[in-house]
Design goal:
By secondary structure, the protein is an alpha/beta fold. It has a single domain, classed as Glucose Oxidase, domain 1 (3-Layer(bba) Sandwich). Helices cover about 20% and strands about 35% of the residues. The chain contains four helices and twelve strands. Strands 1, 2, 3, 4, 5, 6, 7, 8, 11 and 12 form a ten-stranded mixed β-sheet that branches. The longest helix has 9 residues. The N and C termini lie close together (about 10 Å).
Length: about 160
């Protein structure tokens, strides 16, 4: 996979959105891209698990966790499930946990921070809807490109 978000921005500035630089890198893969799949939850990772248990080849899961820092929505077990099912990466507007283990898993993960508290499991939330956070709109079917410099969103595949 050979791309840099800075170069992609230079080539496609009028066609891409740039996410605000609020995310930290946690996964073993720092550079990833794919078609967007979305989940909106609040302190409940049940639908996150459901999504990651599905085939995700060529996809990135974008999770709107309402920017909650009170619990984690992804841990090492879910990160491994995502990797095993072919997901390229996960972007979380919220927290993860088990960060030392996640750093060893070959999946891209960007999140706001870490928290050792696990989420509740009641099954609340929505899937495959447009999400707006970090100054951009993430639409299912659009494309996301992420590396150490940040996140770009494009309505079309550009790599």
């Amino acid at each position: 996979m050979s791309f840099a978000t800075a170069d992609l921005y230079d080539e496609h500035a009028d066609k891409v959105q740039v996410a605000l630089p609020i995310f930290k890198d946690f996964g073993g893969k720092k550079k990833f891209y794919g078609q967007i799949s979305t989940v909106r939850v609040f302190e409940d990772n049940s639908l996150v698990r459901t999504a990651l248990e599905e085939q995700g080849i060529g996809k990135v899961l974008v999770v709107d966790g309402g920017e909650s820092l009170r619990c984690a929505l992804i841990g090492d077990l879910l990160a491994q499930v995502g990797k095993d099912n072919g997901w390229q990466g996960i972007v979380v507007s919220g927290c993860i946990r088990d960060s030392a283990v996640i750093a060893m898993i070959d999946i891209g993960i960007k999140a706001l921070n870490t928290n050792p508290r696990k989420s509740v499991k009641i099954g609340a939330g929505e899937r495959e809807i447009p999400l707006a956070f970090a100054g951009v709109t993430f639409k299912p079917g659009d494309y996301i490109y992420a590396d150490e410099d940040g996140i770009l969103v494009s309505p079309r595949k550009i790599v």
